[in-house]
From TrEMBL:
EC nos: 3.4.13.18
Membrane topology: Multi-pass membrane protein
Domain of life: Bacteria
Compartment annotation: Cell membrane
Major subcellular site: membrane
Segments crossing the lipid bilayer: 22-47, 59-84, 96-124, 144-165, 180-198, 205-223, 253-273, 294-316, 328-351, 358-377, 383-410, 422-440
Similarity remark: Belongs to the nucleobase:cation symporter-2 (NCS2) (TC 2.A.40) family. Azg-like subfamily.
Enzyme class of the recorded protein, top EC level: hydrolase
Keyword terms of this UniProt record: Cell membrane, Dipeptidase, Hydrolase, Membrane, Protease, Transmembrane, Transmembrane helix, Transport
Protein name: Xanthine-uracil permease family protein
GO molecular function: dipeptidase activity; purine nucleobase transmembrane transporter activity
Record's GO cellular component terms: plasma membrane
């Protein structure tokens, strides 16, 4: 035990076993919603016409827990940070709705893309290209991507809840709000918003639990046959990516892999810096062991493609564990162990309906949309590409389209503002690639 305490540097960090364990439990409860939301998203359960296109839900539940456990353990043991990892919101939406549903790419091939994006992430991390890539993308577009994904996720949540529906005259419209399932989702949203406003660390998870309980009490959700059961078979998704690797050598998959890499890379870097700063681990405005932390993230993404789920990334919910006193990698290790224990609670998937998951999607969207405050809206040359990125993700139902249009417009507006010297050559290359994407692949 003393050796473990020394490895995680408890004395220097001023922490102990009890504090780290409580912090790990707090972080787990804050992000446990992903165990149920991720299978719902990747299975395309909310899309009536997508039968057979989505991934098998039970197998994805197992893959989600295993990927989260692996990612959290690697982050805790390798980088020694109190930051947990799991399949990321936004990345799973891109995987399911943009790649599989929008582009018509089979999920097995999309998993292969996840695997390769992780390998590229690892290569960037161990090389000096990491800083160059980070510095090449303007901050306005980084924040716009995060906010746009937030709006996209919230839009999915609103449609899953039955609040927003198709309207032949207006494209979309507000539903009558009389359907019992929709009312249950609205109840869940109100509860979750109240819990979030009260600053409860596990608000999203508790909101889902309360909504599910109310749904069962009112007969809107059937009672589960059991609570604990054997771990669902992961074989339908595990390793499915390997046989599809030869299918990745297409311009379309290049765009998919590039988008996965971009979102994962910058989301991870931002989360790591934010949580580490809250924990007081930043030194001279730099993140110690940054290379190890990003490598742990990249390794988790690579493993995700093999395990059978979308990209795994660092979770901002780790901040709740830091607030509870977590300072070392042991916090993340505790989270990893708890995700492994969660494997035996798969019967609860039956009570986590769209009405239960929709409020979580909407609230996560709100949290991601907070990035809008970092965009300099008074500078028109950067506000326009940022605005198009944010707006077009939900309107086109495609994260890739929003990113592509923003990256194409950015060099144009910057050149018009006579700020062409500030455009990084990589941005010009990306603009040309995305322009070719529209001309040749979406024509």
């Amino acid at each position: 035990m003393n050796a473990i305490a020394r490895y995680f540097d408890f004395d220097t960090l001023g922490t102990n076993w009890r504090t780290e364990s409580v912090a790990g439990l707090t972080t787990f409860l804050s992000m446990a919603y992903i165990l149920f939301v991720n299978p719902a998203v990747l299975s395309l359960a909310s899309v009536p016409d997508a039968a057979g296109l989505g991934m098998p839900r039970d197998a994805v539940f197992t893959a989600t827990a295993v990927a989260a456990a692996f990612g959290s353990l690697v982050m805790g043991l390798l980088a020694c940070y109190p930051i947990a990892q799991a399949p990321g919101m936004g990345l799973n939406a891109f995987f399911a709705f943009s790649v599989v549903l929008g582009m018509g790419i089979e999920w097995q091939t999309a998993l292969a893309g996840t695997f390769v994006s992780g390998l590229i992430f690892m290569a960037l991390t161990v090389s000096r290209l990491r800083e160059r890539v980070i510095n090449a993308i303007p901050n306005e577009l980084k924040h716009a991507v995060a906010a746009g994904i937030g709006l996209f996720i919230a839009f999915i949540g609103l449609t899953n809840a039955g609040i927003i529906v198709n309207d032949d005259a207006l494209l979309v419209g507000l539903a009558p709000l009389t359907d019992p399932q929709t009312l249950l989702a609205i109840f869940g949203l109100i509860v979750t918003v109240i819990l979030m406003t009260l600053r409860l660390s596990s608000a999203i998870f508790l909101g889902m639990a309360i909504t599910a309980i109310v749904g069962m009490l009112t007969g809107l959700i059937a009672l589960p046959d059991q609570i604990i059961s054997p771990v669902p078979d992961i074989s339908p998704v595990a390793g499915a990516a390997i046989s599809r690797l030869p299918e990745l050598f297409t311009p379309q998959m290049a765009v998919v892999i590039g988008t996965m890499l971009f979102v994962d890379f910058f989301d991870s870097a931002g989360t790591l810096m934010g949580v580490a700063r809250q924990a007081g681990l930043i030194r001279d405005n730099k993140l110690p062991r940054a290379g190890r932390a990003l490598f742990a993230d990249a390794l988790a993404t690579t493993a995700s493609g093999l395990i059978g789920t979308s990209s795994t990334t660092a979770y901002i919910e780790s901040a709740s564990g830091v607030a509870a006193g977590g300072r070392s990698g042991f916090t993340a290790v505790v989270v990893g162990v708890l995700f492994l224990l969660a494997l035996f609670f798969s019967p609860l998937l039956a009570v986590v309906t769209q009405a239960v998951t929709a409020p979580a999607l909407i609230v996560v969207g709100v949290l991601m949309a907070a990035s809008l405050r970092h965009i300099a809206w008074d500078r028109f040359e950067t506000a326009v590409p940022a605005f198009l990125t944010v707006l077009l993700m939900p309107l086109t139902y495609s994260i890739a389209t929003g990113i592509a249009l923003g990256f194409i417009v950015y060099p144009i507006t910057m050149a018009a503002a006579r700020r062409h010297r500030e455009i990084h050559p990589l941005m010009l290359v990306l603009a040309v690639i995305f322009l070719g994407y529209f001309v040749f692949l979406r024509a």
